[in-house]
Structures are given as C-alpha cells and as structure tokens.
Amino acid sequence: MSSSTAPAAQANSGSWSAFLKSIASFNGDLSSLTAPPFILSSQSLTEFSAYWATHPPVLTAPAVESDPAKRTMLVLKWFLSTLKHQYASRSEQFGNEKKPLNPFLGELFLGTWSDEAGETTLVSEQVSHHPPATAYCIRNDKTGIELEGYNAQKATFKSTIIVKQIGHAVLRVPLPSGEIESYLITLPGLHIEGLIFGAPFVELDGSSHITSSSGFTAKIDYSGKGWL
C-alpha cells in the first residue's frame, strides 16, 4: 500500500468502526442513519425498480402461453431471473453492497428497453419520504403485460442488519380471451452480512409467494450461507 493510500484506508476503517458502533446503539429505523461516504452508492432507490425489467423477453413470455400452469411457471422463471440483479449485482460491481441514496419526495426514474419483446417502459416514483416508499409501473406495449407495485424498507439491528421489505408487486397478463390474469408477488426478507469485515453483502431469508388469479401458487424459500 502506498503512503498516499494508507491514511485514506485508516480513515475508512475508523469511520466504519464508528458507524458499526452507532448501528449497535441505535433504536429505530436504520435508514435514517448517515453512512460513511465510502459505503454510499451513486444509485438512488428509485433506480432499483429497473431490476424487475432486466430481461424483458422473460418478463413478457407468459403473455403468449395459453396454458395457465405453464404461464405460472414462466412467471416464476421471470421472478427468479430478477433476484441476482436485485440483490447481488451491486456487490459484484462494487465489491460490496453500498447504501443507496435516499430519494426526495416526487423523484422520478424513467426507463425504456427496446428488443425482440417490443418496447418496455418503466416509471418509478418516490411517493413517500417518511417512511421512504417507492412505487413503480412497468409496461410492455407489444403484449400489454404490466407490473405495478411499491416497496418500502425498515432496517433494524439484531447481531446484523435485518431489513424488512414492505410492499408487493402485481403482474397483469392479458389473455387471448380478453381476460386479465393477475399474479400477486410478495418480497423476501433481507439481512446484511459481512459487516465485521467492512464488506457488506445481502442475503435473502424468509419466503416469497406468487399467487395467480387462475388458482396456481408458487413459494420460494430462501436460506443464506451466513458469515462462516
């Protein structure tokens, strides 16, 4: 380590230790705490809604399937395909999970994807500041498939950071008959590992449920490797 980087590393280590002490002694929602600069992300929470549409062809595939059981499997396939981007992509990109920027009330994030699935658009808005909550709508013009939902988080400390995700998503799939089939999707719980080593990462826990208006359900159980 060069002489110029050593003081910065020591300062980061000291800031991280102080941050961990403040977490351990804090009562309430940890999202209101100020994190040290080196752990802050350049991403806003409103941008996270785009992870739902990482693979538009997979998102829209249920709209062209006539069998309800196979449609449910395709919805499950799409949901599973979003998990890595939602919860692991930032650790892979930056080396560890970083705290996203808190959006201001009314902040908008817009997105458009154009590929073989047609044009898929996203509107994501910060609809509440205290507590923070983000609402979003993703729509594919070619198939008419639409995803709407909202997400809020409450973080507490119990030997590690526990994040309760509040909210859900509803996927609406237009059928050839003219009916709209809907899927209610719940969100997993989260906890943050790697705090002691200064390299936090997200692990999923609990369960997610996907419930179709046609009567089919799917349950996804999560378990992490822990800190060992």
Automatic annotation (TrEMBL):
GO terms for cellular component: cytosol; membrane. InterPro entries: OSBP_sf (IPR037239), Oxysterol-bd (IPR000648), Oxysterol-bd_CS (IPR018494). It holds the Pfam family Oxysterol_BP. GO terms for molecular function: oxysterol binding. It comes from the Eukaryota. Belongs to the OSBP family. This is KES1-like protein.
